[in-house]
Amino acid sequence: MRQFTYSLLSWVILLWSFNSNLLAQEEYSNEKIWGGEFWAESVWGIRSMAKGTSYTIQGNDPELGSVIEEYSYKSGKKLRTIVSSISAFDDARERISSYTFSDDERYILITTDVESMYRHSFYANFYIYDTKKGEEAKPLTDFSKGKQRLATFSPSADKVAFVRDNNVFIANLNDGSETQVTDDGLFNHIINGATDWVYEEEYGDDRGLKWSKDGNKLAYYKFDESAVREFHMPTYTGLYPELYTFKYPKAGEDNSKIEVFIYNVETGINHGIAVPTSAYYIPRFFWTNNSDDLCILTMNRHQNDLRFLITEGEFPNNRIGTVEIFKETCNTYIDIHDNLIFLEDGKSFLWTSERDGYNHIYKFGFDGSVDQLTKGEWDVLDFMGYDAKRMSCYFSSSMFGPTQKHLHRVDLNGNITTLDETPGHHGANFSSTFAYSIYNYSNANTPPVYTLRDRNGRILRTLKDNAALVEKLENYNYSEKRFFTFTNDAGVELNCWMIPPHNVEPGVEYPVYVAIYGGPGVNTVQDSWGGTGHMWHQYLAQEGYLVASVDPRGTPGRGKEFKHSTYKELGKLETEDFIDFGKFLANKEIVDKDRIGIQGWSYGGFMTLLSMTKGAEVYNAGISVAPVSNWRYYDTIYTERFMQTPQENVSGYDDNSPVNHAEKLQGSLLLVSGTGDDNVHHQNSLEMVDALVAANKQFEFFSYPDRNHGIYGGNTRLHLYNMMINFVKENF
Fold first, then answer.
1. Which pick of 19, 223, 268, 621 has the fewest CB atoms within 10 Å?
2. Which residues in the chain are classed under CATH 2.140.10.30?
3. What is the pTM of this model?
């Protein structure tokens, strides 16, 4: 602690000495921040072509409209414009929203007229464009029948499977015919070929149909959500408010009943897959390299029993059996991910697991054999691909500390090569052959730099360096983000950062703004560029605030024990850590201990409410945006993964619900929510409002009509942050 105090004081004195001689600087403002003044350039939308020597990007041309262009990795030169709005639609105004190549890269599936559904899902109209003929794109189907979802090429590119009106269809591109695979789809009852709301939100994928390698079979989900209770969300855009109704299973309530089917294209028969009674969830299914073998992942309701099932091959009946090839259990929970590669031998696969206490890559055999490829007291963060030719995996890790992210390569013998050891955050988009990568790097005080690199991480060319943004920031006072640690009252060392006020003066005490999240799977203390959020913190520093953050217990990158320590008690340990952090800061000479505020969004909003009530003696002000106030109101999959059901864990739900601590509030509170939030329902904020009113506590409350969990659109974000800065100046 004393080392931190000494380094902080010496640093701010030096900063004061430097800034005192500066000429007048430009000032940060919310208008500049949320108007895009400080946005960093990026290289996005990169898709490697099959040969791995070139890639495509999507852009806009003033004459051609939307364009898909091909570039050489080696030279960086544009090779051709593959398709444009003019060539596909004879109209530059027609927008190409996204695209997918067929396996042979002759055909392009073009997405247009997108209409959002939930966070990932959407409805759209799809077209087929033949790059060889170069003729006008053809509609995938008769658009008068309704918009489509999840269109996907068969491996042979002669068929496209898609979903319409909750049913699965296959369009034959050779003769234009359409085959209806299912006929029982019904809104808010039966979903075929896609996922329900909670699967999409918490398992991160809405795609529920996949072709076998030979294209002769189509596997798809069937969700029966008839028993799932409906959530009614009012919308306020018309003369009379209307109700938007959708199925939302809250903790402890009924989920959809889920099945997996395989449709045989040749016979036209749907085959149901038999799974064990323990399979409450089926979060993933994958085709293996054998087109007769579908791999199905199942989990129990507590999400601590994971099974890999393989279909038994031939289809003698309409019901297909399965055999278990892998099982993993845990006394807490098991995360679901897509880190799965079936190897060419047909007998083994790669998968990441926390079985040794840290998340690592393993090679598992169908016969039960296990080879651990990565080892150490650090976590594999992202599984980035497998180079089959060189039998090597690419991944990112916390090997150099939980605030860092570095890229590595490991072969099947466990030999690891680190591609760049420069402190900060590293990421990459690899070519199909892994010969090249579009590499991105940043640290807390350096905007992203994009480079082209070879398979060993050697820089071949700089693509974007955000030099213009760096130059622009030289016209502003800038306080570097600095990292440190502190030890909480439980004896656990936690990672933190802080940004001092601009133009600090020795002997002056400054107010504090603690920015938090604290939930499972998310770190706020990262040595990476923070974008608009970081600029907001610079704005606060300009206004005389010391800004700080801490990653409490339960956050990732430090192994299973640390991450799973909050099991069955979300909010308890994290709140203790935030309170201890506030006390720690209050003891510093440059901190005004009577002006320490806290702010968070979503899970961070939940933590803000708990810190403002349980930690009322520490935090004198807080801003809680879109918070959970009672985990009973949140969805099954997320909540029960960490808490089990409310029926099983009454105290875990009640003891750390801020509504049960409302009477402890002492400081100034701003509570903000969007009424159109389909994720953390507005109901959470209203429940907190009711509890605070019952406790006769004064606070400020603001609702954004029809805004979702992100609270954006038009001037919404600007309005929110103007309200926040005013509240901070008056109360922090």
1. 268
2. 115-125+134-336
3. 0.94
